[in-house]
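Sanity check

After download, print the first record. It should look like this:
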Amino acid sequence: MSVIAVDAMGGDEAPSVVVEGAIEAAREGIQVALVGDQAVLEQHIVRIAPQGAPPTLRVVHAGDVIEMGDHAALEARTRRDSSIYVGLQLVKQGEADAFVSAGNTGAVFALSLLLLGRIKGIERPALGGVFPLPTGPVLVLDVGANAEVRPSHLVQFARVGIAYMHELFGIADPSVGLLNIGEEPTKGTPVVIEAHAALAKSGVRFIGNVEGRQVFNHVADVVVTDGFSGNVFLKTAEGAIDVLFREIRDAATSTLRSRIGGLLLRPALRGIVQKTDYRQYGAAPLLGVNGAVFIGHGRSDARAIASAIRTAQRAVDHRLREVLTAAIAEASDGAPPTDA
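Expected structure tokens:
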């Protein structure tokens, strides 16, 4: 059976919420390898599951932790006893089939490249954020792995994004949009203008430029951009959604009349919250590395961790690495990839 390695020490509330989420997923039959300080993890397992952990859960010891504030490029490579390094090493050695972490994104990215490498033909792996919308999921990539990109990178982002949405979400022919400041092909930076032309000739179902507001109207299934703009978009969207729901909650409890109205609206509002909750997917795929790697939000709770493990299991079941490899090979013109 496949095994999902989980960085038990990564995240704002780790290891408690990670252990809780891992136990939830393991109880569903998923084989989980929790990576972290064994003594600490066993204490949390006993507290969370006093009747005993499921047999599908095991602990792999890693005595070091790469904190959120650590410099990933300088420290990740040398700290071979860190939970991120050990977890990715399990994937490299074939002892695990996927890796999930809500820890230091830069460290996961750097060590994924170091230990797993890139899929042949991929210039830059991209981090894909899945936005759950009432009309279905939208994948935005890159959302943080590459601050600067070339037009060829954006075309590859589109190809791996299409393969991901087709394979994991069953979208027959995913459409692609290019995040920009306007819909006209002449808008944006020189890189974006050139990328627009390249995407138009790439053979993908390219719908053109997409403004930030249009992403939530689901005008495209895959939206590509550089990691700087994508991360700003992601964090802005998270903040706006948090403010919106907080204002709705406050308004629904401010007066007796609004409380009565809030009770009547609660079932409908609960449905909206569930449809737009990022925790239903749990983590962002790092598409383009030679393995299944998923990076969760630092503030992930137990539900998000469990969802991330399920998503990783689905990726393994759908042979995601092989699917992405085939998608890039099919589109390749035989030229060697640009040095990234």
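If your output differs, re-run the checksum step. Summary of this record's structure: The longest helix spans residues 227-251.
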